[in-house]
Amino acid sequence: MEDGGGGGEGERNRTSPSSSSSRLRVRADPFLVVCRCFSVITALTAILCIVVNVLSAIRSFTDGSDIFDGIFRCYAVIIAFFVVVAETEWAFVLKFWKVLEYWVGRGMLQIFVAVMTRAFPDYTGANDALVLLQNIASYMLLACGVLYVISGILCIGFLKRARQQKEISRDQAIKDLEELERRREELEYLLIEERA
User: pTM of this prediction?
Assistant: First the structure.
């Protein structure tokens, strides 16, 4: 009887860590979720700037009216692409461009792309939709850039990196705990087989 009661407790203890680990895994840091959402919004805004600048460059080259505007738009597309890549926080890029690891640097780059997107608007009225799209894209990216600069000055980026490191450590600890739990179950099974 006591062995049966002890076995029930052992099984409850055995399932308890796995249920607590799944609970830990599901619960994400709300601060990091907000940061990821902001990164997605910034990346989408930078992609909108890329589209607007590509359309403007095509218009400039096909009309032949302003070749320099087309060249300027091509540079804006390239730099906006770096903004998108910086938001993915790809380690390969951040290794070579350390300034993009810091939020103030990212914000300044975003502000620069926003200004480039806003520069040389066509106020002749020939393409009002494109001018409106340029204004929307540039002001949205400008707002993201200003938020990045302010957040960088307030050391929010440092806080984000610290929490990311903590989350990575916690995930690794959960994986290690699950591995130990699996090994313990295997050893218990072998011990039970050996006794039988």
Answer: 0.71
